[in-house]
Design goal:
31% helix; 21% strand; 13-stranded mixed β-sheet; three-stranded antiparallel β-sheet; alpha/beta
Length: 454
């Protein structure tokens, strides 16, 4: 007897024999979910056309109130999406993000030929994707899965490259072209007013170099400032101090990393920014990378249409899924940042057309730019207890949810890996047990008992 499960309304379909009813009829009646089970129907979250079985991410199984699980739950990856993952610390945000990354990496051609993943890792935990999840092997077997390492490429700032290699982490140097920053970007990075003599000097120098040589290094900026006849010695010294500090970050170079070496079809890139000294610098790096990807995807989208019209197969930059942990640091509710400006205006508001997907994880949805909540077409909500955070989600609760976010979260219980998923495409919400990771999760809390206690 099939069951249709919805976290708010639960029904079973009882098929009556022809002896009791004329013809074949189905009667819908209420039932107690705790005594029964969940649906056998397969859902693909975020997809309107249910015809194709390609391009789906297996995220988990439907969960009943009694803890039993039903059929698999999938998420679409053929089209672009904005996904918000939220929940209090220790309830599976980063874990779920890793699951989605794994599923994208497992895609086969032709899907894998046209998508790429990039993870913005502010905590330095996603390099473990390259190792099999042997610590949860028994749990995986219950899902008919096996531990599997993922093929990932880790990028770190140049001055931290050797640190990673010493401990056995294979990493690649990441650098940003100095010329990608405008004068106002440098002022924002140094928290200097653009109308202050120091801000004017830096902005003027950067603009002159852009016009004269195009590509340049921080050392080129310093040389040009040294020869500036309009600035005073104190202003020059202040500029020298700021820019000399920027050299030590090891992230800005004359040429910089080629974006096509980072974004490659079927590949996963981990941008580890955890070693950069503060949020402003990290935000600048994220903003520049996001802007470069957006700029590359605009002509790629045009070429996609040309290929469709002419039958040509000209390759371009693939559609990109960007994952950002601790997203409230880069897209804050109060104030602004380069990352926030680019991600909100170019990825969230305009990203669907160029084929850009954004997956954001946060333990503080109330600290996020409200546009993030309103523009997300899929929300994955793990356990939350802060009233402020729950209220932030309530403000964007869709009308098709008959029950409040707070009530839905309370009914989920305290189990780790359980999530309320709100899918705006199908206009439905589901309670799901997220599947275990194939690769090693680096986001667990350390224990003073040592590694054997985990």
């Amino acid at each position: 007897m099939p069951y249709l499960y919805h976290p708010l309304v639960h029904y079973k379909i009882v098929k009556h024999s022809s002896s009791s009813h004329s013809g074949s009829m189905n009667e819908v009646e209420g039932f107690d979910l705790a005594r029964t089970g969940v649906t056998d129907k397969q859902y693909i979250l975020g997809r309107r056309d249910k015809g194709s079985q390609q391009g789906v991410l297996k995220v988990g199984r439907y969960l009943a109130i009694d803890g039993s699980t039903g059929s698999d739950v999938y998420m679409d990856c053929l089209g672009p999406h904005a996904v918000l993952i939220c929940g209090k610390r220790g309830y599976g945000k980063s874990y779920t993000m890793g699951t989605l990354v794994e599923e994208l990496a497992l895609q086969q051609p032709p899907v894998s030929d046209n998508i790429a993943s990039v993870i913005i890792d502010s905590m330095g935990i996603f390099w473990t994707l390259g190792y099999a999840n042997t610590k949860e092997e028994q749990m995986l077997s219950g899902w008919n899965l096996e531990p599997k390492a993922q093929d990932v490429q880790v990028f770190v700032s140049g001055n931290n490259l050797e640190v990673y290699r010493i401990v056995g982490i294979n990493a690649t140097s990441l650098s940003i072209p100095t010329s990608d920053l405008s004068g106002s970007d440098w002022c924002s990075l140094f928290d200097v007013s653009p109308v202050h003599p120091l801000g004017i000097l830096i902005s003027r120098t950067v603009q002159q170099l852009k016009e004269d040589v195009g590509a340049f290094s921080i050392e080129d900026i310093l040389d040009r400032i040294q020869n500036d006849v309009h600035a005073g010695s104190d202003t020059k010294q202040a500029a020298f101090n700021y820019l000399s500090a920027a050299v030590k970050w090891g992230i800005f170079e004359k040429e910089g990393s080629d974006i096509h070496d980072i974004i490659r079809p079927g590949r996963t890139a981990v941008i580890d920014i955890s070693s950069l000294p503060d949020t402003a610098i990290r935000s600048m790096v994220v903003g520049i990378l996001a802007r470069r990807i957006y700029q590359e995807r605009l002509p790629a989208r045009r070429q996609y249409e040309i290929n469709s019209i002419t039958g040509e197969q000209v390759t371009t930059m693939p559609m990109v899924w960007m994952f950002i942990d601790e997203a409230h640091l880069f897209m804050p509710r109060d104030g602004h940042s380069l990352a926030g400006d680019v991600l909100v205006n170019e990825w969230l508001r305009q990203g669907r057309q160029p084929g850009l997907s954004l997956v954001l994880a946060t333990q503080q949805p109330s600290a996020l730019d409200p546009i993030v909540l309103s523009q997300s077409d899929i929300i994955v909500c793990h356990r939350l207890t802060s009233q402020e955070d729950i209220s932030a989600l309530e403000k964007v609760r869709p009308t098709y949810m008959r029950q409040g976010i707070a009530d839905s979260i309370r009914k989920m219980g305290k189990g780790k890996g359980v999530a309320l998923i709100v899918d705006d495409t199908s206009e439905a919400s589901h309670v799901v047990q997220m599947r275990p990771r194939l690769s090693w999760h680096g986001g667990d809390e350390p224990s003073s008992l040592g590694t054997n206690s985990r």
